[in-house]
Description:
Layout: E1 3-12, E2 15-23, E3 26-37, E4 41-54, E5 60-77, E6 80-95, E7 106-119, E8 123-136, E9 139-152
Antiparallel strand pairs: 1-2, 2-3, 3-4, 4-5, 5-6, 6-7, 7-8, 8-9
Amino acid sequence: RRFDIWAKTGLGKGFEFELKYSYPTAGVISIKYQFFEKIVASAFKFGFGYMKGTRIGYTTDYVYDFYGTLFVEKNLISGIKFLYAPKVIYSIHYRDRQEHSDRPPRNISHIGHCFSFALGQKIVFLPEINWLWGKNANTNYMVNQFGIGVNLEID
């Protein structure tokens, strides 16, 4: 992915709907529920994602992700929040049936963590670091990612 754009809206007390497009060929639909707001804010998000990608050898994968994420957010000082988000992802990788490949579809389970800060009020900068562990075809792997997001709140 090179660029994400998303929108979210409230669906009632504690519920949020999110739609995200990731350039060039991925998207996510999710529902988030805020269940605690005392010392730390806590929420759970369940989502479904889709991605199409062509790999070496021109095998096209269609990836369907189902994930659950727990969010724990703490206000540190005015305009600065700390966020921790452990997650579990279950991926189903189908290959393009029009291409000649004998590789069977794969199912992969991942676990991961995200640490982030939210810096700002109406315009929020979100530097974050992610780790994701999984096993694919008897190979253990770890993915490290760093990103910077910008949120603009529109009333």
